[in-house]
Amino acid sequence: MSRSIIRRIFAAVILAVMIITVLPIPGRASAAVTPGKPKITVKSVANGSAVVITIKKTKNTDGYGIYMKGPGDKDYQQIDYYDKDGKKKRTYVVRISQEGKYFFKVQGEFDDGHEWHEGKFSKVKSVTIKYDKKDLADVTTGDIVALGAYEQDNNKENGKETVEWIVLSNDGSKLFLLAKNVLDAGKINPKTDETITYENCFLRKWLNDYFLNNAFSEAQAGIIAETELEDVGTTDKVFLLSQAEATSAEYGFGDKMDRRCGATVYAQSEGDRDGDGKKEYVTTCQGYLDNNFHYAYSGQYACYWWLRTATRSISDKPEYAGDFQFISERGGYNHTTYYGSKYFSQHYDEDDDEKFYVKGFGVRPAIVVELGDKAKELVGVTGKCIADEKAVFEGKY
Hints:
The protein is built from eight helices and 23 strands. With about 400 residues, it is an alpha+beta fold. Helix content is about 15%, strand content about 30%.
């Protein structure tokens, strides 16, 4: 064999070795980028308002997919979570909405710059959520109780969902309650050419007719007191909060954040609630401020909700006279035109220095329940508390 042929063979071998070295072998490459199997622990925190998942450092992992199966679920679903404190990147918090047994599993993910690779699932870990419950007579400001049912998930085939109420006060004989979420959409009044009062507005009639009859059984309605609203001169079973009530620390509204709330899926759906031919719906802050989210303690996107208070006169803003006030997604109280049109109505914030436009005002009913034997039978004590949600929201767990 000539030397030239030997050189060519040698060069070919060297080239082949170089190619093999540079090009990935499928089996070897797959192993190199496959994340390790995560090791996790789970524990309930904040009286069951959330679960903390701690994940030990996992090899070849840039992130995690967290999957949960809750009460009544057939399959695992990938869920949203947030980092516990912004620094411990392997400690995550998952919100919980009801009692029951929850199962969790975690999958590591690796980004090689071209695509994401998924590893094996961790062992399944479970935690049972059981809320600490008080006697009804002992509930206090910030506790959450259940009474009545109203469409909330916008799936009418599965029936109405139980309504949760925040306790604003308990004087020993009556509970002052506010719906935890905005339950429906609506105007103070369909547009007219005359100034409207709360006494004569459409929304007051709707609350004490449609909502009262649809949300409560006859027995449940029987424990709801007729409440005298001196500021507007009416006596009602279902009503809107006043501006003074919605800003009272005594009722749990110490700051703007305390006034934020979410809206049910049904409330966000379109529907002609007042028969004027226009479709009402609640807009959450996600719907129009994509780069400026505002959240309630529950983790929901915040929304707007009506108050019964109308602005009688403002010396330097006479055009506000007769306007009704409402709580914004930021938690501040604002005012709008007396008829409450949602369609591109112009508003000012409470500092009177910003104009903005928004569709979608929410209805957040309030009631007063008479304590007694009937109430003990009909009102459910959930064991949930706004203080627990607040602790989770503020990252204390």
